[in-house]
Here is the input.
Amino acid sequence: MVDFFGGHTHCTKFSELTSAFLVITAVGPATFVVNAVDLTPIKPGNLLAKYADTYLIVTANTVDSRSLELDNVERWCKENNLALNRSRTVEIVIRDGKKCLASQPPPLSGVSRTSTIKILGVTVSNKLYVSDHITNIVRICSQTLYALTILRAHGLCDTALQSV
Here is the structure.
């Protein structure tokens, strides 16, 4: 990959009138997925979903392997000149909303636990509810409509509003 992209440029358009050729200094999520083909979970039943972010999914019956799996990801990162940022790594324990989980596993070292997580743009709770996602979408739409209302009140024409 370094040989292929090294010394190459790409054209970046800044506006209708300006564009420039810039040196390629990073590659996108698709390249990561291709390169991460050898990143696999240690324990059968666990899953690594690799997109723009990587999601390690550990089932309840293999919960004791969480630390081992995280160490595996960290080792793979080091071997591939990457770094796992544990301060940005989060753990979410998914549970059945109808049943009370008697005891949750202890938190992983250096990893914070959260009750919601955004996966590919969708906010999901630890009970697999998407109500937080719906709330966020409604909030964003309300903010956008408010901004458009203010712009129209200040005299912006319909054509310009559509562009916004």
Q: What stands out?
A: The beta strands are 9-13, 19-23, 47-50, 54-57, 90-91, 112-113, 116-119, 122-125.
